[in-house]
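Researcher: Batch entry, complex prediction.
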Amino acid sequence: MTEKVLEVRNLSKSFPGVKALKQVDFHLNKGEIRTLVGKNGAGKSTLIKSITGIYQQEEGQIFLNGEDVSHFSPEKMSHAGVEAIYQENDLIPYFTVGESIMLNSEPRTSSSLFINKKALYAASQRILTEELNSTIDPRTLIRELNVSQQQIVQIAKNLVKKPKVLIFDEPTAALSAKEIDNLFAIIRDLKTRGVSIIYISHRFDEVFALADSITVFRDGMKVADKDVRETTHKEIIEIMAGEDGVEISRERSHRKAFTEESVLTMADGGNSFISGISFELNRGEILGFFGGEGAGQQKLAQTLYGMLPLETGDLRVFGKPAVITSPSKAIELGLGYIPRNRKEEGVVMDFSIQENITLPILPQVSSHGFIQRSKEAGIALKQLQDLAIKAPGTFTNVRNLSGGNQQKVVLSRWIATAPKILILDYPTIGIDIKAKSEIYRILDRLTENGVSIILITPEFEEIQVLCDRVLVMRQGRIVKEFASHDISEKELLLHAIGVSDEY
Amino acid sequence: MTKKRIQSTQILPIGIFVVCFIIFSLFSHSFLSLYNMKSVMELVTFVALPAMGLAIVMLTGYFDLSFVGVIGVSSVLMIELVNAGVPPVLVLVIALIASVLMEALNGFLIIRFKIHPWLCTIATMLIYLGLEKAVSKGDYISPQGEFFNAVRFSNILGLSAVIWIMIITVLIMIVIMSKTTLGTYLYATGGNREAAKKVGINVDKYAIIAYSTAGVLSWVSSFCYVSQLSGYPPEAAYINQLEVILAVFFGMALSRKGVINIWGAFLGAAYVGFLASGLGLMGVSSYWIKLVEGLLVVFVILGTSMKNGSLVQLD
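Model: C-alpha cells for the complex:
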C-alpha cells in the first residue's frame, strides 16, 4: 500500500569543522506530506540540498522510485522529478507570470525557431487555474504580484516539470493567515494527485495541521520519525531539544555581578516591525534576545541603533530621553552594533586590520583631517594583543583572516570606541568552537568593566553560558522573560514557537 | 611580514610596458628625445587629470561619464568670460563653482532619486555637452588676452606649467586618499557601504563629496585644455573619454590589492599615453593604432586576472 518514492540511506555530509549530517536514513511515501523539524543547524537544509543534488554526500545513497540517484546533479535531479521551493524566490521581476512559469520549457512554433507565446500563455493559464485554483493573469509582470502570489507562481513553475517530490523550505514565513490557508489547500490538493511533499517549518501549528508525519533532526542526526496522529507538540519539542546540554560549564565568571543600574530603558516601543516592547538593560549585564527567524530581535536592534525609526513608546539612555535617528547618533550616546552579516555589513574587506578597527574613531586618531598612522597602529596593536587576533600585523588585509578573526576585528573596532552599550547580533555565527569561547571571554571581560551587552543569538548554549537574563520574542513582541539560572531549552523553544498554552 | 614585492599579477603589465618601451626606442630615434617625452607628458595630463576624478567616484562605489561635458562647459565658460573682460581670477573661481555644481548634481540625482549612475551621468553628459556646444556654437573658440598664453609658454625647470599642474595634483590627491579621514571614508563607502553606515559614516554625504571632487578635477583639466590648446576644440575631452575610463581600470589591474586608486589611475594614463605616442612614432598607421592598443590591453588584463594561486595567502 505504501510505496516509497524517495529513500535516503546512511547519508553523511561534512563541511570544514562540522559534521552536518550523520548517517541519516530517511524515506518519503507516495502522496505523503512529511515535515522536517529541528533547530537551526540541525541538518534539515543540508539534507534538502543533498536530495536536490546541490550538495554531494560523502557517504550513503539516495533512491528515487527504486532507482539510484545518489550522485545526480541538480539538473538531473530536477529531470528525475525532485523540485524544491526555497524561501528566497528566484523569479525575474520584469518577466510575465507566463514566461516565468514556462521558463526553459517554452512551447515552440512549428518552425521551432520562435517561442509560441500563445501556447505559452495557454499552458501557464491551465496550470494556474486547473492545478492551483488561482486567478492570477499569466500576462501580469512578476513585480506587480504580492509575495503570496509570487509563491503560487513559484509552485506553478515547479509543477510544469511534473515533479514526484516537491520540497517546501519554510514557505509561510512571509504569508498572512489567509494566504497560509490557501497554500495549505494547494499542498493538500497536490497530495491527492500523488505528489509527495517535504515541508520544512518552524511553526508547530502548521506542522500539525498539514503533515502526515514528522521527522526530527538534532545535531545532524535524524532522532525521530513520528506519525502526526500519535504525537504531541510537547513530545516533539522534547525530542528537538534533547536531554544533553544541561551540564555546561559556566564560563561567565561574573554572572550576576551587574548592578541594578539601568543604562537603557524602552517602554512600550514599537514601529512597523515590533510592538509593545518594554525592557531595561542594566550596567554590566548581558541581556539575551531569543526567538525564531524574523521574530523581531534584529528589527529591535536596528531600531535601537537608529536604522529604523521608533514610532511609538519611550526610549531612555542613561536616564535621559533619547531619540536615535542614525547610527552616528547612537555612537554618540555610547552604543555599538555588530551586525550578523560580518562580510556584508561588518568588515571592509579591502582595508587592513588597523583601518577596520579605527573606522568609527578616525577623528580621534587624526589631527586636522590627517590620520596619524602611528597612533592608529598603536590602538590596533593593543586590540590585536588583547583579543588574540591571529595575524602577522596590523597592516594585514582583513580579507586574509579567518571568519573568527574577522569577527574579533569587528569586536575590537567597537571596544576601541569605549562603548557603554554593545548590541551583538549572533556574533559567533559561522566561527569555530575555539574562537567562539574566546569571544565569550571577551564579552565577559567587557561586562566586568561595566559595559552592557544586548546579545541576539539562536543558540541555547550561548544564552545559558553568557546571558544574565533572556527575553523571548515572537511576532515582534516580547513574550517571556527568564533569568538565566532557570531556563531550560524546552521552555525557551516553547515560548519562541508559541505553543506554551498547550504545554 | 609585510612583503613589498612585485606580485606575479604585475609582471605581465610591467613586462609588456618595458618591452614596448625598448622596441619604441630602438625603432624610433625620436621616441626617447626630451622633446617627445615632454609632449607625451602633456598628452598624459589630459587623461590623468579626469582619470583621477573618475577613480575617486568609482572607489566610492559610483560611476561618472559626464566629466567630458563638465570639462567642456568649464572650458568654454572660461574662454567666454575672459573674452567678456572678467578678471582671470574671478573667471577661474566661477568655472570652479560651475564644475563642482555640475558634478554634485550627479551625486544628488543618484542618491535622491535612486537613478542608476550610468543612466544619470549619460543624461547629464548629454546636457553638459549640449551646453558646451550651445556656447561655442560648435566652433574652436579661443581666449583673448595674455593670461592663458602666459600659462602655455611658461617654463619651470624645463617643464611646462601643465605638467607641473598634473604632478602637483597627483601628489595632493594621493595624500588626500591615503592620509586623511576623508580618503578613508570614501574608500569605506565604496568598500562596504553597509559597514560604513553602521560605523556612523554618512555615506550619502561622501557620495556627493566624491562627485564634487571629480568636479574639481574636471575644472583643473579644463584649465589645462584651454591653456595648452589656446582654446577649446569642440568636444575635445569627449574624444578622450574611453582612454580615461581605460586608465582607471588599468590602474586597478596594476595595483597590488586590485583596488582602484589614484596612483594606479595616473600609471594607467601614462601607459595609455606612452603606447599611443610610441606606436605613432614607430610609424604604425593611425588606422592600426587602436587595434594594437586594444590587443595590448587584452593581454595585460588576461595576465592580471589570473590572480588565484599567485597571491600570498595568510590564515
